[in-house]
Amino acid sequence: MPTVVQALWALVLADLTGRQDVVFGSTVSGRPAELPGVESMVGLFVNTVPVRVRPRYEETLATFVGRLQAEQAALLPHHHLGLGDIQRLGGVGPLFDTLVVFENYLVETPDTAADPAPGASDGVTFAGVWVSAVTGRDATHYPLTLVAAPTATGGLGLTLRHRSDALSPERVRGVAERLRRAVREFTADPDRRLARLDLLTPAEREQVTRAWNSDVTPVVPRTLPELFQRWAREVPERPAVVDGAVELTYRALNERANRLAHQLIARGVGPERPVGVALPRGADVSVAQLAVGKAGGVFLPLNPDYPA
After folding, report:
1. Domain range for 54
2. Which of the pair, 122 or 139, is modelled with greater confidence?
3. In 3D, which of 204, 140, 199, 189 has the Cα closest to residue 167?
4. Same structural domain for residues 186 and 46?
5. Is the confidence at residue 126, as pLDDT, over 70?
6. pLDDT for residue 208
7. Which one, of 249, 263, 252, 251, lies nearest residue 295 by Cα?
8. pLDDT digits 0-9 by tens, 248-273
9. Which residue from 107, 138, 206, 297 lies 20 to 30 Å from 233 (Cα-Cα)?
10. Are residues 23 and 91 in the same domain?
């Protein structure tokens, strides 16, 4: 279950950031199973380690979770390494700004405890010791923390905690809705491919499909050569085409296209006149396409690898 939570959080982060390589923090017990008597040692061994996840969008959800579990299992022997040491060895500054906490310690209620304290009505049992009147308050020093904990009814509760100076409550509620949708997608169909996940909230979908696609802005009709000519005047030294070691600025591309356009016009190219261009992929294709447009002709690409 901790791996499922980590996988879903990674998908939410990837969706929010537009990246296919995300890192978040995770708390670990810090008690290596191979250490004799570690389960009875007193003290706080908890450590925080970075979790790097690279979703492959051709994978299914189930395959993705399985791969993540195998990758994280291979790192278990190194969970004792302190976060400060990891950060220093990585040499890249802060490693993450969100944290995942999975509280998976055994908690018994009076109904499930084997031998609850006499008269106990409100409390929990830890390793045979009955503790009553348990309350707790904590805070996160990361901008956003996801806490997952088993519930008394056998379910799993997910809580997002955040720093108010870093994120607004509205923003966090939006993240929570994305996480809720990710949980629903996973439980509904674990064999769905990652590329087919839809984590947008209704409000976000409305913004993307309607608000950002409004057609109320007037558009003045312009040809491609006119638009390019304007751009070449405004940013003449900015790179326009990069082809390996060849780099053409807008000025250079414009000058080369103008020379070729004059040659085409001299050969009879004009409006609606098709011009076949048989060139391999490269910077010359951009020059030719622009030149044909400047001459008023119709650009017809021909693959030189095709039979005559």
Report:
1. 2-102+138-209
2. 139
3. 140
4. yes
5. no
6. 86
7. 263
8. 999 999 999 999 999 999 999 999 89
9. 297
10. yes
pLDDT per residue as tens digits for the range 161-196 = 999 999 999 999 999 999 999 999 999 999 999 999
pLDDT tens-digit profile of 35-66?
888 888 888 888 899 999 999 989 999 999 99
Is 180 contained in some domain? yes
pLDDT value of position 42: 87
d(CA 99, CA 89): 20
Buried/exposed 127-151: b ≥16 CB within 10 Å, e otherwise: eeebeeeeeeeeebebebbbbbebe
130 within domain boundaries: no
CA distance 79 to 70: 15
214 token code pair:
């409004």
Q: What's the rounded Cα separation, in Å, for the pair 221 and 219?
A: 6
- Rounding to the nearest 10 degrees, give the CA dihedral for residues 184, 190, 196, 198: 10
Which residue from 272, 277, 279 is spatially nearest to 300, judged by alpha carbons? 277
Pairing type for strands 98-102 and 144-150 reads parallel
